[in-house]
Amino acid sequence: MLPLTGAVVFNSLWTTEECKRIKRLNDNLVPRKPDEPIIVLRGLKYDYLLDGNRRINTWIAEDSKELHEVWIVCPVYNEDTIGHVRR
Question: What is the DSSP code string of 37-77?
Answer without folding.
Answer: PEEEEE-SS-EEEEE-HHHHHHHHHTT--S-EEEEEEEEE-
